């Protein structure tokens, strides 16, 4: 996937986390206020109220980090594709002077040049020469 698509996905997820955090926090605040008011008579002195606030801030901080990462991914430059082309080297044809070769050597040279590389046994078979002569 591209970075922008992942960024949009994370943006939606972080917004949903923030919305759910606010709804959950409000519902929990109402429950804590009712519970603390019945027990202590004062909401401000209740320890549960402080822990709910800390948990809400922690959840919003995580969602905020996700939001920042998603914005970074959305607005960052896409990776450029690097295209590497291999340049084929031109084979330089060497002009080999065959004037000093005998007829048999020219025949072996022609077979090796035609096939690229050959085993000695294949050369003996194709030329009909003996092992000693090869």
User: What about the largest sheet?
Assistant: none
- Low-confidence region ranges: none
Order of helices and strands: HHHH
Number of helices: 4
Classify the secondary structure makeup into a structural class.
Answer: mainly alpha
> What is the overall shape?
rod-shaped
The radius of gyration over CA amounts to: 41 Å
Total strands: 0
Overall pLDDT confidence:
83
Counting structural domains, the number is: 2
Annotation keywords:
2 domains; mainly alpha; 0% strand; 134 residues; rod-shaped
SSE layout and pairings?
Elements: H1 3-39, H2 47-75, H3 103-115, H4 120-127
Helix pairs in contact: 1-2
Describe this structure as you would to a colleague.
This protein has 134 residues and is an all-alpha fold. The protein has 4 helices and no strands. Helix 1 (3-39) runs antiparallel to helix 2. The longest helix has 37 residues, at 3-39. The chain is rod-shaped. The model has no long low-confidence stretch (mean pLDDT 83).
Provide a concise account of the structure shown:
The protein is mainly alpha-helical and 134 residues long.
